[in-house]
C-alpha cells in the first residue's frame, strides 16, 4: 500500500500542480476577458454551467436569421430595414479560393507600408485642408495583397499639442487603402495607421458571429423553498437545439426572446436571477489561432533596423508570424507633416479650398475634445459648475458598464444614495436634495455578462423608457453595445428598434427631453477577447446604431472617435481623461451656454 503510494506520489503531485496551474491560468485569462461586470468567481464556482458545456459545440448554423426566427415575425418595413442595415455593414470577404489561407499569405502589418501623399499641387499643408495617406498591405512573404477587407484604423495626432483626430479609411478592395484626415490645427501632425485585424481574421470573426452565436452564454438560478437549480440561458436557439424542455422568458412587452433550459424539478416561474454563464471553447482552429497573435508586439516592431544582430533576426523570424492584432504600420517615408496656419484671403485668393471628403465628429486640442456637433463644449472642472448645470434635473442612465462609468463620474459631485445593490450591478442612485438633482443608473436587459442580477431588477431599456414622463428637466442617457458583440447583428437591430420606438414615444410625450446616446468604443484586445469582444464587432454595431438613430432629436457621444483619436491605450472602460471629455460634452448639452449659443 505504502509502496504504491510513494510510487504514485510524484504523479499525484504533478496532477495537483497542473491542476493548480490550469486554475491559475483560467483566473488570469478570464480576468480581463470581458467587462468589469463579469466576475471571475462565477466562472470558477460554476465551471460546470452544465448543459451546453457538456453537450459540446452547438450545431453549426448557416441561416442568417438564426437569432431572429424567434420572437415576433418582422413586419415588411422591419425586414426591409434589417436588409438595408445588413447591406450597409457588409464587409468584403477574402476570395473563396484563398480561404483558409496559410498564415504566410495573410496580411502582415510589418511588411505593409503607408505613404503620405503630397498635397495636391501645393507644397504645403494648411489648416482647413486635408491629408491623405496611401496604404499598401503585404503578406508575410512580402507580396502585395490583392484584395481588401483588412480592418485598419487611422489617426492624426500631435503629442506636443495634445491634439488628435480620427481618420477615415477607404478600402480600395485591391490591397490598397486610403486614409483621409482633416487638418484642424497648426503645427506638427503625425499619421498613425493600425491594422486591428487582417481581412482573414475578420472572416473568422464573421463566421463565429453567425455560426456560434452562443459562444457567450448565460445562466439563471431557479429557487423555491429548499430547492435550487441553475440552468443555461441563451437568446438564440438553433432549430435543432436542445431536445430538452425550455423555459420561455421572452419579454411580453417588447417581444425580446430569452430562453433557459427548464430546471429538472422546478417550474419556470422559479427563476430568480440572471448572470454570466461562460464561454464556449474551443472556437478557433489551429490555423485560425495564428491570425490572432499579439505576443511580442514590441520586439516585432523593432525588427526592422537592418543593423540588428543575427540572433535578433532569428527572434524576429520566430515572432514575425505571431503578431497581427492591433499593430501599427510603418511609413515608407516621413510619417509627419507640419501644418501651416490658414492663409488669409488677401494672401492668395486664387487658391480654392479643397472639397472636404470627410468630417469627423470632433477632435482633441490641448487634451480637450472639440465637438463639431453645434453646441460648443465647455469645461466643467469644479463641483459647483457641475451641480449648477444639473440643478433641477432628473438623469436616467441605462446600459452597460461604460455608461455606469458616467454615473460614477457624476457621483463624485452628487452624493450616492445607498440602495444596497452590488456596485457593478445596480440599480444605483445619487441624490442632491439641495439642488433637486436625481441621478439613476440601471443595467440593460439580457444578454448581459454580469454578476447575478435579480430578475426583478432585470429590465429592458424600452420598457423603462415607457415608464418616464419626460420633459425639459429629464435627461435620458444610454449605452448598449458591449454585451451584444458576440451575437448576430439582427439581435442588436431588434433591441435598438424597440428602444427607438420607445424613444419616439417619449419625445412625443415629453417634448424637451434630452436624449444622449453613447456609441461603442475601442477596447484592449488579445486572442481570447477578439472572439467575443473584438473592435470589429463593435464597429459593426456602432454603424447600425448611428444609422438607426439618424434623424432623431438625440445627442450622440462619439466614444468611437474619442477613443481612437486619444493617445491613451484602448480600454473597454476608457480612462478618466476621456470620461471627463465625454461628460463635459454632455453637460454642455444639458445646460448650453446661452451667450455662446447666440
Ligand atoms: C487585466 O487588466 C488590468 C488593468 O486593466 C491589468 O493591470 C492586468 O495586468 C490585466 N491582467 C491580465 C491577466 O491581463
Ligand atoms: C506557406 O505556408 C504553407 C502552409 O503552411 C507552406 O506549405 C508553404 O511552403 C509556405 N510558403 C512559404 C514561401 O513559406
Ligand atoms: C487599387 O485601387 C485604387 C483605387 O481604385 C487605385 O488607385 C490603385 O491604383 C489600385 N492599386 C492597384 C495595385 O491596382
Ligand atoms: C497666388 O497663387 C498664384 C497661383 O497659384 C501664384 O502665382 C501667386 O504667386 C500666389 N500669390 C501669393 C501671394 O502667394
Ligand atoms: C478646466 O481645466 C483645464 C485643465 O486643467 C483648463 O485648461 C481649463 O481652462 C479649465 N476650464 C475652466 C472653465 O475652468
Structure explained in plain terms:
The chain folds into three domains: 2-47 and 91-204 and 324-348, Sandwich (Immunoglobulin-like), CATH 2.60.40.10; 212-282, no CATH class; 362-597, Rossmann fold, CATH 3.40.50.1110. Helix content is 30%, strand content 22%. Strands 20-21-22-19-24-25-26 form a seven-stranded mixed beta sheet, covered by helices on one side. Strand 17 (362-365) and strand 18 (368-371) form a beta hairpin. It is globular and about 80 Å long. The structure holds 2-acetamido-2-deoxy-beta-D-glucopyranose (NAG) (5 copies). One 2-acetamido-2-deoxy-beta-D-glucopyranose binds at residues 102, 104, 141. The site of one 2-acetamido-2-deoxy-beta-D-glucopyranose (NAG) has 3 residues, from loops.
Total number of β-strand segments?
26
What's the helix count?
A: 17
Mean pLDDT: 84
Low-confidence segments, given as residue ranges, are 20-65, 297-308, 318-322
CATH topology of the largest domain, which one? Rossmann fold
Q: Which ligands, by name, code or SMILES, are bound?
A: 2-acetamido-2-deoxy-beta-D-glucopyranose
Assigned CATH architecture of the largest domain: 3-Layer(aba) Sandwich
Shape: globular
What characterizes the major β-sheet?
7 strands, mixed
The percentage of residues in β strands lies in 15-25%
Give me the Rg, rounded: 26 Å
Helix content: 25-40%
**Number of separate domains:** 3
N-end to C-end Cα span:
92 Å
Instruction: Give me the side-by-side strand order of the main sheet.
Output: 20-21-22-19-24-25-26
Question: Which structural class do the helices and strands define?
Answer: alpha+beta
